[in-house]
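pinning this so it doesn't scroll away 📌
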Amino acid sequence: MAKVSISPEGVKYALPDEKAGKEEIKILDEITAEQTQLGRKVVAIQGLGFVGAVMAEVVADSTDSQGKPIYFVHGVQRPSTRSYWKVPVINKGESPIEATDPEVAEIFPRIVKEKKTLRATWSSYAFSLADIIVVDIQLDATKPVFGDAAKGYCDTGAFEKAIADLGRNIKPDALVLVETTVPPGTCQHIVKPILEKEFKARGIDISKNPPRIAHSYERVMPGRNYVSSIRNFWRTYSGIDEESAKIAQEFLTNVLDTKEYPLYRLNNTNASELSKTFENSFRATNIALVYEWTLFAEEVGINLFEVVKSIRVRPTHKNLMNPGFGVGGYCLTKDPVLAHWASLNVFKRKKGLEMAVEAVNINDLMPLHSLRLTKSALGGTVSGKHIHLLGASYLSDVGDTRHSPSEIFWKAAVKEGASLSVHDPLVKVWPEIPEAKVEKDLLGSLKNKDALIFAVGHKEYLGLDPEKVVEAAGKPLAVIDTQNLLTDGEIKKYLNLGCKVKGVGKGHIETLRRER
């Protein structure tokens, strides 16, 4: 049976064979020759995930002062049973990403069918045709012990293989722009040596043709401003040498709005790599600090959301975080661990980043607090109870489930004997919890549930009528608000309907109960 790649919708796509490989090379040569005649430079995006796919859109959609396309883009997703399906989907002019930002779906047909400035491929041969290669492949941190991030590490094996693939194919003067969030020191200590080794194996004199390498990290924010978070946002960048930095600056200036959002150059790639992990470690630590005060506020009867709101009037404190369900996604859950690992293993320091790592520990364990609130509302146990999660994704109005706090809650609740179900308007399947059927009928999914967890702040969950919720459930139920979605008036209505209500950071609910 032929190997296949299956899309989130369940559509099967056969993986390419050797014959298809020869045909693909011919197609790539013809397209590149045509684009070169049009005066366009060629860019290859390595990896078509949540960052790479939209980066490919932005680059392929960029134009010069006369409105003419500047680049042609080969979007490269290597054959795999997980993600190859994106290649045929993109080449039909469709988005491989479910997003609330309408621009994501609007740009793909424009650049594939109208402008014809993007084509997806699975062949590494595309790298040999590119002037610039943007690296957007996954590099994760492994945390083998839940709640002990200090034991986390970075397995760079797959990343190194991907860089070696570039080294075997790219033109000697092509720029490799690493956009992936990597441990500090990666470009200098991993990318550069690998490219040099592959260049030497090809007979390239690296004294005359040293690999051109740059680093520019993204600040992608999946959601309503998905595309803008790439195109219309500030960028930090650096080069392994002056020539690399110069090429990177020209490229970024062509594809991003650098007039409104100027580029910031750092002196070397170690600095820009550290910048990304430091930036996200700051955010992770901010969240961890708020969690400590969340517990304090709950125990002494204070609404911490109102307290945070009052503090944010001070301009220097506008970035103070709110209480919440937990921390998820691809950045804050791993970036501090990447930096900690690099400190010890790349730079051989004796000391890691203890505060940043402890922040990850606190944030990873945070969903267990919502489980404790649920147990309290259900009389001390969730065993035998039917718990319904509103939201499987890691962020409001986003369909990405990677490292979702809902996953941690689900697994912990099941371990304690609870039965769980989930609704999410943006998630089609939940890869991390394959047994979960993601419900789409919001009210219909509430039938016979004992507890309702407002886990994600999707706009669909705002303003739900408490009476309709209880009617749909068929009985009063425990309601846990982890995202400040319920107003005080709605909380009182739930209480009047006989529901037990708890809220993360909402210590004032007991006062509301007495006032009703």
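📌 and the second one:
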Amino acid sequence: MTPSGGTNSTSTEASNAAAASFASLLAKLDYLGTEGKELVRKAYRFSDHAHLGQKRQSGEPYITHPIAVAAQCAEWKLDSQALMAALLHDAMEDCGISKEDLIQEFGAPVAEMVDGLTKLDKLQFDTQEEGQAESFRKMLLAMAKDVRVILVKLADRSHNMRTMGSMPTSKWARICNETLEIYAPIAHRLGLNQTYRELQDLSFRHLKPWRYQIIEKAVGKARSRRRDILIKVQKDVEQAFAKHSIPIRIYGREKTLFSIYKKMDTKNLSFAQVTDIYGMRVILPSVIECYTALGVLHQLYKPVPGRFKDHIAIAKVNGYQSIHTTLVGPAGINIEFQLRTEAMHVVAESGVASHWLYKTQDHTSETSERLGTQWLQSLVDIQNETHDATEFWDYVKVDLFPDAVYVFTPKSKIMALPRGATVVDFAYAVHSNIGDRTMAGKINGESVPLRTELKNGDVVEIVTSTVAAPNPAWLAYVKTGRARSKIRHFLKTQAQTESLGLGEKLLAQAVRAEGIDQMPTDEPKYKPLWERLLRFTGNHSKEDLLVDIGLGKRIATIVAKRIVLLLSELGEKPDALLISKERFTAHESVSQGGVMVDGSENVSIQYALCCRPIPGDSILGYLGRGEGLVVHTENCSVGQKLKHKDSERFIAVEWADEVVRAFESELVVTVQNGKGVLARVAAAIASAEADITHVNMSEEFSGQAAIDLRFTIAIRDTTHLDTVLKHLRRLPSVSQAHRVVSAKSTSH
């Protein structure tokens, strides 16, 4: 605020400065027409009044910032609504203007954009990171509905970075890191190359000022040393194209200081070793002439092997198209040439903003997809699967990879995925239903593991099955946010469904053990009972309670006792005969009724790795807190310890008559060391119709007379295991073979 002594003169100066900067903005708006200009003027007046008396850190009137943001949007030729949102973008956050006020004054589309740009500072969050993640989620979802939101935001961030010198230095690191990690990658993802380069350089300048200055001086010296060479190259190229009557526009291009620094840092190079600091852009009339130009240049200078990329035939994921070739120029200097048409140049510099800048005749969906629309839509898909802001932001950061691999579907459609993407990522990129039903994958006609990373040019085919389902192990290697969120969503939904069924079964059995034949139903007379029970357990719904019981977060017997108490208040007493019958038939060492298992369970029932139970073993179930039912063998030492400490969490478990899959068991086979012994043991296991899933041997394999081989094998039941052990014991080289039951005990 201004001191009281000179309020009038200072406020007059401020309003004059603001009016002058708005006049310079108006000069850029001829493309809008009279009506559009008038709407922008109205937004300016509103914003100027709202920010009256506010100043920036530099001492300038605050309104100069929204005007500068709008000016950047005008450079991109954005429409009047976007310019109005740019002028009003801080009105809700800093001036107490409501969304309803903006709807009334400027209409819903402008108000929605401003709302999407407004941070959520007024809400309370547990951590700063959570609040920041929620703000980004809000902005990105608004951007997915209307891409103009992010264009205004990037213009806002660009102006803040240009004027960062006025901010307290204590804020520089946070703002610069945020810009490098979030805004610059978003600009790159949307093809805004000029903005991307500027944001990186400004961040570098304020984060590492000393290194920035050193590289800046080195580039300046190199520029003056090589000026004559670059002028000669430009002249030679112009003459060569004139000879072939191809009209061109050519100009020099310099690598940004940040990209030089990154190359030096990541590849451990000195400045002198960075060879491609300078380049040339050649703008040509048509695509055909771009390819002709390539031939002309390769006749003029020798190309550097392996330094040619055709991004015209296969555009980058953000819509970028150019032919890149590196040539050895005079004095042995490497110079990169980029060949493109005028339309490609506009897209290369301005990405999605080129939709307004350069009105092409081709407004096909493929063009808009190439300019980032597909990625924006994927944000909405991810949002639908996760309502946790931090998780959402993690997914989005994964998708901001600047690198991509380009692969083909069997029908030759090109798909772009982040570098490191796997067969599973590809399946989900095609369609979430394909991903969920993926059983196997083929690359270039050959079957490959699902975790295989894709390479440029691969033809990828997905084999699906109606019985296939996402595997939790996929989360360890998928790279795209879309695949990760779809897999997690499926697993959460499935875990809830399975846990609900298990919880219902356990509670029904526990209620019977307390002498009540049937659980209270959902009919009106029991409604107050369920409400009181849910208040007691702290659950939101009956389903929520049953899921918690299935996951082991609640003990069925405790809930059942409460149900009996509430029923007695309604006049329904336990049946003494049923109590004695249930207790007589119940498993003597456990406190709840039994559960039948057959291996078809996916998430809600796990088989303990300490003892690896198989059909035929005597087993017990432990309701771990939050992890569902874990099945142990009855003599497992880990299970015995848990039972001693937490007996009320154990329930009786029995094998079904028919199991639906093979189970893993661990064997230790002691052999006399000799040539081919491992092959003979493996053959014996195979002859007993068992599959080896893992093998481990002691490291001193070559130096010992007798060694232990540890096998993990897939078998049907204990009878099948006996058959495998008999086959092994018949081998002359095998002195012992037994199953590992738990850490301390073995059997068979």
